[in-house]
């Protein structure tokens, strides 16, 4: 039996950074952002629904979705965001459940599901233990602006479109405070995995 760990946090709080550490440890990671990208490729049902609701203006010349353009729309309009979520999330949920079942068949000690909107989209039923990657809001804003080249306003609209990170901390089984160095975060992760007996005792 594999322990299914949900890894979540806020935008740019460090989920990918921590998920890379899991991969280095040989633990399988299933990434909801990747599944969400696959779910909206041309030919998929969610793709057709997006085009019929948002129009062909949100398409690139080659017919794929112009992600920055769609992001600009949905992070500034709650109604449109909920509409996109209602189109994409059922497909993501299904894909994640399939991937989880496959990983469990392999009988690994643990499987990680990296899901940014674990709480917002009520996906907690897919996992057994939850790790929240936390950063303070100032650091989050700075890292997001730097990584994506966003203005303060653009970054803030994305942060505000998610449940406050502080509220997620209260619902976690374990928290990694990623406001410090990457090495400090790695140590916190190892401590959690040792406590949960995922890693062999050294
Ligand atoms: C709006 C889109 C096209 C922007 O694409 P882009 O390539 O710029 O960003 P990417 O997909 O890499 O997401 C980056 C981060 O934004 C945040 N985010 C994405 N979608 C949402 C959303 N609907 N609500 C709140 N935060 C979101 C997450 O923290 C995510 O990790 C894309 O994010 C999307 O299709 N979102 C809807 C699907 C979704 O909710 N994905 C999140 C995981 S299920
Ligand atoms: N401890 C740290 N110190 C300095 N920079 C960091 C640290 N952790 C992550 N970063 C940087 O902050 C940015 C956000 O981290 P990361 O991409 O891991 O976040 P994420 O939660 O996966 O984001 P998203 O929700 O947008 O997918 C990246 O540019 C990353 O290199």
UniProtKB/TrEMBL annotation:
Protein name listed in UniProt: Dephospho-CoA kinase
Reactions catalysed: 3'-dephospho-CoA + ATP = ADP + CoA + H(+)
Transferase recorded as keyword: yes
Enzyme Commission no: 2.7.1.24
Encoding gene per record: coaE
Protein location: Cytoplasm
Binding site for ATP: 12-17
Family stated for the protein in its record: Belongs to the CoaE family.
Domain of life per record: Bacteria
Single GO MF annotation: ATP binding
Main location: cytoplasm
Entry keywords, A to Z: ATP-binding, Coenzyme A biosynthesis, Cytoplasm, Kinase, Nucleotide-binding, Transferase
NCBIfam families for this protein: dephospho-CoA kinase
GO CC terms, sorted: cytoplasm
Pfam assignment, any one: CoaE
């Amino acid at each position: 039996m594999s322990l299914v760990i949900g890894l979540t946090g806020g935008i740019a709080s460090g989920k990918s950074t921590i998920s890379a550490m899991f991969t280095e440890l040989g633990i399988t990671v299933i990434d909801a952002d990747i599944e969400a990208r696959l779910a909206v490729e041309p030919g998929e049902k969610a793709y057709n629904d997006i085009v019929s609701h948002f129009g062909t203006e949100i398409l690139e010349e080659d017919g794929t979705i112009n992600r920055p353009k769609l992001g600009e729309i949905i992070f500034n309009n709650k109604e449109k965001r909920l509409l996109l979520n209602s189109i994409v999330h059922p497909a993501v949920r299904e894909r994640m459940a399939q991937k989880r079942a496959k990983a469990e068949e392999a009988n690994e000690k643990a499987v990680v599901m990296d899901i940014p909107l674990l709480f917002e989209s009520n996906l907690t039923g897919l996992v057994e233990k939850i790790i929240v990657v936390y950063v303070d809001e100032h650091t989050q804003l700075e890292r997001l602006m730097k990584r994506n080249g966003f203005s303060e306003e653009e970054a803030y609209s994305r942060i505000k479109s998610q449940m406050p990170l502080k509220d997620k901390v209260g619902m976690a089984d374990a928290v990694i405070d990623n406001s410090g160095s990457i090495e400090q975060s790695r140590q916190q992760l190892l401590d959690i995995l040792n406590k949960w007996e995922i890693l062999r005792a050294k």
